[in-house]
Every structure is written in C-alpha cells, then in structure tokens.
Design goal:
Elements lengths: L15 E5 L28 H12 L5 E5 L9 H9 L6 E6 L8 H7 L3 E5 L5 H8 L4 H14 L4 E7 L8 H10 L2 E7 L18 H9 L4 E3 L10 E5 L5 E5 L12 E4 L4 E3 L8 E2 L7 H13 L7 H5 L13 H4 L2
Parallel strand pairs: 1-2, 1-10, 2-3, 3-4, 4-5, 5-6, 6-9
Antiparallel strand pairs: 7-8, 8-9, 10-11, 11-12
Helix pairs in contact: 1-2, 2-3
Function: Catalyzes the cyclization of GTP to (8S)-3',8-cyclo-7,8-dihydroguanosine 5'-triphosphate.
Catalytic activity: GTP + AH2 + S-adenosyl-L-methionine = (8S)-3',8-cyclo-7,8-dihydroguanosine 5'-triphosphate + 5'-deoxyadenosine + L-methionine + A + H(+)
Cofactor: [4Fe-4S] cluster
C-alpha cells in the first residue's frame, strides 16, 4: 500500500493518528469538562487494545507512521504499556507518543518507555499549587512535577508541557514557564483556548492571543530566535531563549488556523473516526474492525469529507461557519 494513500481533497498527506483510549479522566479541567463531569461511555463501548492495534496495523499500511495516545486521561486505562508494546511491534510505526495530565505518570514512566513509548506531552496550566488545583478542580501539581522529572530520567525525549493560556487566570505565569526552558531541556508549548464542545461564546472571555508571550519576552528583554523543528513539533512555531536548555512553542489554532498543514486523523475511544477535531462529522468504525479493506475504505471516506479549515477564527469573530461545530467536549474526542 502506497504511503501517499491518505491524501485528502486539499492535498494534505496524513501520516498521524491520534487514538483516544478512554473518555474518562481523574481531573475536571475547566476548559475540558464541566464541573459536574460528563456521562462516560460504558466500558463495553470502548475499543479494546486488540481492536486499536488492528486499526493501527491497517493504517500503517496506508502510510501512518506516528501514533499518539490520548483520553480523557489515558493512564486511567489499566496496563497501557501492553497497548504500547502491541503498537510498537507494528511494521511502519516509527513514533508513539502520549498526552497525559501527569498525575499517574511518575511510577509508570520507565515501564512505558521500555514498552516502546517515544515521548510525552504533559498538560500543566499552572505552577502554583492552589491555582493548579482550581484549574483542574482538585489536581496536585507536585505529582505532575515529579512526573516531568521521571520522564527526563527515563529518556522520554523531548518532554513537552502543554500550557493552555487563559486570560485572567494564568497569563501572569508566562515568564515562569519560560524560565523552565532556560533551566531544563524541556519544550513548553503555549496553546490558545479553543471553543471545542462549547455551545456558547463564554470561551471568548478566556481567549488570549499568543502575541502575549512575545510581549512578556520584550518586557524582560529576553532575546529569542526561531528554533529548529523537532520530531512531533506539529503545528507549533518553535523558539528558544538565548542560552536556554529547552525551547518554547506557540500553537495558535484560533488566530493562526494552521489547518493547511494538518496531517492528523482521530479515533475516539468509542470507535469513531473524526477527520476534523472541530466539526460534528464522524464515522463509526468498530463494526468493520477485522475487515482490513472495509477499514481502509471507511478511513478514505472520512478523509474525503475533511474540510479545509476548522474555522475557529470565524467563531471568534462571530461569523457564520460552513459546518456545524461539535458538541462533544475535548475529553470525549481525544484532543
């Protein structure tokens, strides 16, 4: 099967699959899940590790080379290292990464690495214990910091920190996160607040353009230069402060609408293909797993409907969009 099979109608080649292994999470982050939580899918509706590996095997034959495990919180699934080992054995798969809140990660980092995990992205929206607890509705920031150290020790490189910037909540910590990159070989990625799963415009009250990061550098007279793109840099624009051990990246889905270079497809925990994070369109895959050709055809069908843009910039400007925004929250999709 040719590596150029997964090309959409806009010429974008897709070599990256994001796999949600669960819609459950041990936290209730304010931008991801309502305080009362969500109604989770019954366990019987969630794809098994064997089903996930079957899908990944078929897509590897269609040119997919990178996999990312997401949730919910993927580490609430038992023995995630078993799935990682299954995926690592698939010919053609070159990179397996994990997005996690880091609460359960520290004691598992070495085992995940040995199973075949390549690298991690850890969500960390505040370094202040009380604020972190407020944003996550109960999280312990010390556990996340311990997980960062454990991942560095295990050789999971690069370690990336995902920081969702929110106006009036954590924008005063931009300098603190930048200082982390001076002292440690990590990548801090500042991410704009996105309107995923929000059926109102309240998200705009927290939206902060990432120009603010450059403003903070200017205020402190910190020189920075573009940094070479590293493996898995994706949509981030990367920079390095002068003399820093690490780097920082800016991911601006709203103001930058980077869709022209999108190379990813998504598989939800309950077995739906989502060609685009933002829209309602999805395709139930579970009933055809085991029939390789049917799996291929369904992914091609989904890819054929992928729009040119998620149009979040239109939502910010209160303009009409060409598709219907999804009502599923980020934890239900897999990010």
């Amino acid at each position: 099967m040719s590596a150029s099979v997964l090309v959409d109608s806009f010429g974008r080649q897709h070599d990256y699959l994001r796999i949600s292994v669960t819609d459950r999470c041990n936290l209730r982050c304010i931008y991801c899940m309502p305080e009362e939580g969500l109604e989770f899918e019954p366990s019987a509706h969630i794809l098994s590790y064997e089903e996930i590996a079957e899908v990944a095997r078929v897509l590897a034959g269609m040119g997919v080379r990178k996999l990312r495990l997401t949730g919910g919180e993927p580490l609430v699934r038992k023995e995630l290292d078993v799935l990682i080992a299954m995926l690592a054995r698939i010919p053609g798969i070159e990179d397996i990464s994990l997005t996690t809140n880091g609460i359960f990660l520290a004691p598992k980092a070495e085992r995940l690495k040995q199973a075949g995990l390549t690298r991690v992205n850890i969500s960390l929206d505040s370094l202040k214990p009380d604020r972190f607890k407020m944003i996550t509705r109960g999280g312990d920031v010390d556990k996340v910091l311990n997980s960062i150290a454990a991942c560095l020790a295990a050789g999971l490189s690069p370690v990336k920190l995902n920081v969702v910037l929110m106006k009036g909540i954590n924008e005063d910590e931009i300098a603190d996160f930048l200082r982390l990159t001076m002292e440690h070989p990590i990548i801090v990625r500042f991410i704009e607040y996105m309107p995923i799963g929000h059926n109102d415009s309240q998200w705009k009250n927290l939206y902060l353009p990432l120009q603010r990061v450059f403003d903070v550098c200017a205020e402190r007279q910190w020189a920075y230069l573009p940094a070479p793109s590293r493996q898995g840099s994706g949509p981030a624009d990367d920079y390095r402060l002068e003399g820093a051990a690490g780097s920082f990246g800016l991911i601006h889905p709203v103001s930058g609408h980077f869709c022209r270079t999108c190379n990813r497809l998504r598989l939800t925990a309950d077995g739906y293909i989502k060609p685009c994070l933002a829209w309602t369109e999805d395709y139930q895959l579970r009933h055809v797993i085991g029939d390789d050709e049917a799996v291929r055809q369904l992914f091609l069908r989904a890819l054929g409907t992928k729009p040119e843009s998620h149009e979040m910039f239109k939502q910010l400007a209160d303009e009409e969009t060409t598709h219907t925004p999804t009502s599923r929250r980020m934890s239900q999709i897999g990010g």
